[in-house]
Amino acid sequence: MQPQTFPLELPVTWRCPLPLRLVATAESESFREHPPGTTGLPLPPHPGGFGVVRRHHVHEGVDLYAPHGTAVFAVEAGEVVAVVPFTGPLAGLPWWLDTYAVLVEGPSGVVVYGEVTPTVCAGAAVAAGERIGNVCRVLRHDKGRPTSMLHLELHAPGSRTCPEWLDTESRPSVLRDPTPYLLTCCAAPADLLAQP
Ligand SMILES: [Zn+2]
């Protein structure tokens, strides 16, 4: 199997959404070995990678594991266009804990910061690097893997909701792969980036 590569040229670059250095990894168990101050940027087949097929759906975003309470920063400037229940009873998904998603529209589209406790309201303008929330615990049960993470999605401009990507259907048209943007803020190894 050919390793996946990502485009070098992007219209905009992102700041890191966490106060942690991102380390690209395709290895599901790599969270056990990341040094303090770092976390994995999961690439398929890592279960936190974008587009990975799970039991009943396809993963719509990228999971950046981080301790409960970790600050979440805007990757680029924009406007908070929605703050919505994302998981838990409030979102009709009671097998998870209650978390929210903050949707920020900016130059690259709508960035969805999911599985957070928001610190901003809809209508607010945010600067790149400004805090928009905190990571909070999403998994009810500790199965030896991280129970809190930033679940980050990228949508086309104009998106205001978070559609589910069912494994029996094609990708919702609004969904984009945020991985190339996240690679720009983590000093990606050269072999992950496609040469022009
Ligand atoms: Zn996720």
Low-confidence stretches: none
Order of helices and strands: EEEEEEEEEEEEHE
The beta-strand count equals: 13
Assign a percent range to the helix content.
under 10%
**Number of self-contained structural domains:** 1
CATH architecture: Distorted Sandwich
How many H/I helical runs? 1
Structural class: mainly beta
- Mind telling me the CATH class? Mainly Beta
Question: At the fourth CATH level, what is the homologous superfamily?
Answer: Glucose Permease (Domain IIA)
Distance between the termini: 21 Å
Walkthrough of the structure:
This protein is mostly beta strands and 196 residues long. The chain has one domain (21-193): Distorted Sandwich (Glucose Permease (Domain IIA)), CATH 2.70.70. The protein is 3% helix and 33% strand. The chain is built from 1 helix and 13 strands. The chain has one helix spanning 179-184; strands at 6-7, 21-25, 38-42, 62-65, 71-73, 78-87, 99-106, 109-118, 125-126, 131-135, 149-155, 175-176, 193-194. Strands 4, 5, 6, 7, 8, 9, 10, 11 and 12 form a 9-stranded antiparallel β-sheet that branches. Strands 1-13 form a two-stranded parallel sheet. A two-stranded parallel ribbon has the order 2-3. The longest helix has 6 residues, at 179-184. It is globular and about 40 Å long. The chain starts with 5 loop residues before the first strand and ends with a strand. Bound molecules: zinc ion (ZN). The site of zinc ion (ZN) has 4 residues, from loops.
Task: Write a concise keyword list for the protein shown above.
single chain, Glucose Permease (Domain IIA), two-stranded parallel sheet, 1 helix, 3% helix, binds zinc ion
